[in-house]
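Dear support,

I submitted the protein below through the web form. The confirmation email said the job was done, but the results page showed an empty box. After a refresh the structure appeared. I'm attaching both so you can tell me whether what I see now is the final result or a partial one.
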Amino acid sequence: MTQPLQVVLAGRIGNTGSYDMGMRLWKMAPNPADLMVIDGAGHYEMYDVPEYVDAAVARLADFYADNL
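What the results page shows now:
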C-alpha cells in the first residue's frame, strides 16, 4: 500500500472486532497513517450519533485536505 491511511475507530471495544482489526491495520501501515480513536463511541454509534460522526468527518476532511 502506497497511499496515506486514515483509521477511525470507536473507542469503546465491543464484540464486532472492528477495534482490534483497525489497530492491526494501523500498526501494519507502511506509509503515513493517522489514527483517531473516538472515546465513548461504540461501533454502531459511529453511524448515527452526531457528536461521534461530526468528529470523524472533521478529522477525515483534514486528512483529505492534506493528502489528496
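Response: this is the final, complete result; the empty box was a page-load delay. Residues 3 and 31 are 7 Å apart (CA to CA).
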